[in-house]
Each structure stands twice: as C-alpha cells, then as structure tokens.
Amino acid sequence: MTGAKRKRSTVWRKIQAVRLEDIKAWCLRRLPILKWVPAYNWKENLLPDAVSGMMLAIQQVTQGLAFAVLSSVHPVFGLYGSFFPVIIYAIFGMGRHVATGTFALTSLISANAVERLVPSVRTNFTASNNSGILGLSEFEMQRIGVAAAVSFLGGIIQVVMFTLQLGSATFLLTEPVISAMTTGAATHVVTSQVKYLLGMKVPYMSGPLAFFHIYAYVFENIRTVQLEALLLSLLSIVVLVLVKELNEKFQRNIKVVLPIDLLLIIATSIACYCADMEYVYRIEVVGNIPKGLPSPKAPPMNVLPEVVTEAFGVALVGYVASLALAQGSAKKFKYSVDDNQEFLAHGLSNVIPSFFFCIPSAAAMGRTALLYSTGAKTQVACLISCVLILVVIYTIGPLLYWLPMCVLASIIVVGLKGMLMQFRDLKKYWNVDKIDWSIWVSTYVFTICFAANVGLLYGVVCTIVIVIFRFPRAKTLNLKNMKEVEYKYKAEDNCESLKQVKIVSVNSPLVFLNARKFHADLLKIIQKDGMSSQVGDTVNKCEQNTLLCSFSNGSCHGELVQSCHSERRVLILDCSGLNFFDYTGVSVLLQIYMDCKNRYIDVVLAHCKASLIKAMQYGGNLDSENPVFFESISSAIDAIQIHRVRLTSRSRWSLEGFLDAHRNLLKSGKVLFTQ
C-alpha cells in the first residue's frame, strides 16, 4: 500500500505541475485549426476559398459515388465518405491544400475484404430484404459494415503509429517507391473498372496475378461486350480528357474552370432517363440513393481479426499518398507539416467516420490539384464543400438514380490520369540514378502482380538493402589542404613544420556498415602520402645522427635534433562530419590510433563530441603523454607546435649535458678509445 500511495502522490504532483500554458501549447500543437482560424483573413481568402469549395464539392460528389462502387459498397456511402472525414481533417490536419475524402487506392484495398467476407453470390442485389437502415438491403449493410471495419482498424493503426512517433520513419518512403506504388495501384483501379467500361459481367478476382487473370477473362469473353456501354464510355472519356485539357490550358485566363464532371453526370442521367437505357439497352445504373445522414453505429467488431491485412494496407498506403501531397503543398506554399500530426489527423479521419458508415479515406491527387488551380488558401474551402455535399445528400441525391455506371467508371479512369502519367518519371530516374530507375520498375511490377501494400513493402525493403550495399562503398574521408584551414603563422619555420601535418575530414557516420571501408580509406591516404615510409626513414636518421653526435668531438648542432622532432608526422582527424557512431566505429578509431602509433605517426582528433570522447576513453587505453582530443583544428595545431618547441629545447639541454659528461670522461682517461 505504501508503494501504491507513493505512486498516486507522484502522479498527483505531476498533474498539479501542469500549467495552463502547457495545456494551451498542447492544444495548439494537436489542433492546428486553433492556429489558422483566428488568423484567417476573411476579406482576402473567403472568395477564393468559396470558389474552390464549390468546385471541390462537385469533384467530391462524383468521386465519392465512383470510389464507393470501387469499394464494392452502395454509392451513397461514398457521399458520407466525402463529408465526415473532411471535417475531421480540417480540425486535426496541417495540410492547408490537402483535400481528404474517398480515395481510389484505399477503396480498392477495402474491396478485397468486402468481396472476401460478403461475396456477391451470397444474395441478390435488391432491397427486398430491407434492414430498416437507410432503406437498404441487409446485404448492402453487411458490405458497408466490413468496409467500415477496415476503416476503423486502419485508423486505429494510424493513431498507434502517431503514439509511437513513427512519422520520423517516413524517410524510408523515397520518391521512386511512392511514385511506383501509386502508379501500380492506379493501374489496378483502371483494371477494376474495365467491366463497367465494357458493360461485361466479370467475377471478382483477387490475390497474386489477379491483374492478368482479369484481362485473360475479358479476352476470353470479348463477345459479351455491351456496345452501347462501350460507346458511352468512350464518348465520356473523350469529352472528359478534352475539356480538362482545355481547362488546364486556359486556367490562367479564366478564374472558374468548367465543371465537366458535373455536366457529364447531369447530361448522361437525363439521357438515360429519357431513353430508358436501363431497360432498353440494359445499361447498369447507380440506382436508388437514400436521403439524409445515418445515425451513428459502431462497426462490427467481430470482423476486425479478418480484416487486419486490409487495415494495414489502408493505413500505410493512405498515409503515404496523403503525406506526399501534404509535403508537396507545404513546400509549394512555404509552410511546415508535422509527419506525426498527419498520422493523428488521418487516423481520426478514419476512426470517427467509420461510425457513420464511411469507407476508408485519404487525400487524393486530383482534388488537391484542383485546390491549387482554383486558388484555395486554407481548409475553409474543404469545409465549404462539406456544406454543399450536405445539400446533395438531403436533396439532389435521389436524382442520381439514372446515372450510368459506365460514366462513373469513365470519371474514375480520367481522374487517375495524374497518377498514370508518373510513367514519365522513368526518364528522370534513368538520367539521374539507374538504381532508382530499377527500384521504380521493380516496385511497379510487384504492385501489379500482388497489391499496393505488397509493392510498398517491397520498395521499402529494396531501398534498405540497396542503402546497406551502397553505404559501405561511399566516400568516407577527404584529405584537406593546409590552405583550407583558417590559421596563420608569423614565423616561416612554423609554416615549414606544418608540412608534416595532414588533416583528414570524416564525411560520414562511422558504423558497422562502413567501418571497414573507413579503415581502408585512411590507410590508403597514409600510404599514398608516404607518411609511413617517410616517418620510418626519419626515425632511423634521427637515431643515426644521435649516435654520431655521441661519439663526435662535440661539434653537433642543435638544429639537427630540432629537425628530428619537427619531422615527426601528425595526422589530424576532423570529426565535425561524424554525426553518429556505434561500437564497431569506435573500435576502428582505436585500432587506427594504435596502428598509426606503431608507424610513428601521432593521431589527434578535432571537433569531437563529448559522446565520442567518452566512448573512446572507455573503449581503449589511449596511453599518450599529450592530449588527443581538441575542440578545433586550430587548437590541435597550436598544441602540436608547442609540443615540438618543448621537445626541441629539452633535447638541446640533454645533448649539452651528454657532451660535458663525455669530455670529463676523456680527461679522466676512463674512455678507452675515441673516434
């Protein structure tokens, strides 16, 4: 009980120590909306945000309907997925131009779980078995329950990653890996829409090589293609591409782009209704869309263990794609984005909306590019789009009954144009780095053959392996010229003595990956400079000169001894670039110190961190009379000069004493012979 009371008192003291300023700082850090809303410029920013919000709402509605179908759930749930996650991200997110909502890649991943757990053959696609919720069938509610469970668990994983501060690990997600993964996933999305574009009945296929099985099935049943749906799809794609190209070309001259997606939906819906295409030409339409927002309901927790794989895919792929867009907008408009805070924002944008029957969400490239082009300033544009989407949910939704599915598929395919055009990056990677080019191609192939999450995992592992192989081969050392050192000497003899000093700069961390290469590079520098052989010759010459002086008649000059000490070589290691090290790196430094000592080369280290000094002193016995570690190169050279002056004066005194003793011995006749 005493220990428990002590713990409670400690916790209570910590709670009491929390100040109001700390709580305010935490709220500002975790709720970015509290920062930008008070500083919002209503006069300058409201109009462009309103225009962008209206254009964004149109794209959110069309993509919401399309990506819901891609996720194998009823289209109305895509409208909910374009409303709730946007509000949550506006509160917790830091990307001012990031338009979150339904996303093609996460929808495709969640469709795997939906089709696996609630297959289409289980019941008819009708509303005869009414569940009492939104007027939809029990089959549809089971399907959205699985998709909501994927969203819930994926969001929980992202929140856990935020708690563990794993946002700093995003450096492993290189640009080639992200580009290849998103391009491969976009190719999967296009493949999933082939059945709607052609008006065919294609069974759902998933697993390894499903991409090729789908096209094999299409070519085997090519005679079942519905010509009316194919022609309508081709016409929709041509119109969409042509008008969007014109919008991009003249966007500087016109402030509001033509909402071709909305116009196409209205036109084809009216045409389908007037021509009765649903029954005359058997063209598949969206069907009934319920009015209003649903009451909150928890996702089915019993299916969570069965959707773990898809949840991890949604968490990683959605976060990677969204973070890339957030960092790109931050770089373009010169503000900062916290990687960990984005984990929290997207995690909550998946967890909370899952209680309102929403599919997994993330930021989309097309919507973010739309905010760029329409001049959006803040997340107010996204909030305005939510108001308009709410109007669609309560009033306009039922009018979308006659929207052809092939038109929705055409909108999806054209909306992925930006991702598919990333194939052009291959030329850039080939010209810059062939290894990055190979990573892009292999990651794309893995994504195509398996899935987006598998391709992402392969790309990260491949990047780590290549770094491990390339890191030991990287240049670790750089031989500096004495002219590069900002140090001046007045005496000319000092400048001459500095020729015996070599400065080597350490350019990289010293760890087990490159420790052996570091040792080899340093030995090459020593041997190339001739330090070892010259030092050995100098030592032998000094010993011979000292022996000759001892048997001479005393006419030995002090300059000879001075040159012996001044010619001893010194190696200065500039450790300013040594950011971190491990035990192997410290061991190599100690081994270099001892090897150079055996070669009659003094080794000193400059710009050393306290941790490096402590590690070297703990790891080995640096038995030296002189200091080894210095704050700078200049202080190291100062110490070398002072030490040489002391050695020279000490040698002069010892030589004079030796000559006096030798003369006394000669006078006393105790020496048998002299030379």
UniProtKB/TrEMBL annotation:
What keywords tag this UniProt record?
Answer: Anion exchange, Cell membrane, Endosome, Ion transport, Membrane, Transmembrane, Transmembrane helix, Transport
The cellular component terms of Gene Ontology attached to this UniProt record, alphabetical and capped at eight, are: apical plasma membrane; basolateral plasma membrane; lateral plasma membrane; recycling endosome membrane
Reaction(s) catalysed (UniProt annotation) = sulfate(in) = sulfate(out); nitrate(in) = nitrate(out); oxalate(in) = oxalate(out); hydrogencarbonate(in) = hydrogencarbonate(out)
- Pfam families recorded: STAS (PF01740), Sulfate_transp (PF00916)
- Give membrane topology per the record: Multi-pass membrane protein
The organism's place on the tree of life at top rank = Eukaryota
Q: What is its main location?
A: membrane
User: Where does the record place the STAS domain?
Assistant: 491-640
Q: Which family does it belong to?
A: Belongs to the SLC26A/SulP transporter (TC 2.A.53) family.
Q: What is this protein called?
A: Anion exchange transporter
Q: Which organism is it from?
A: Catharus ustulatus (Russet-backed thrush)
- Give the organism's phylogenetic lineage: Eukaryota, Metazoa, Chordata, Craniata, Vertebrata
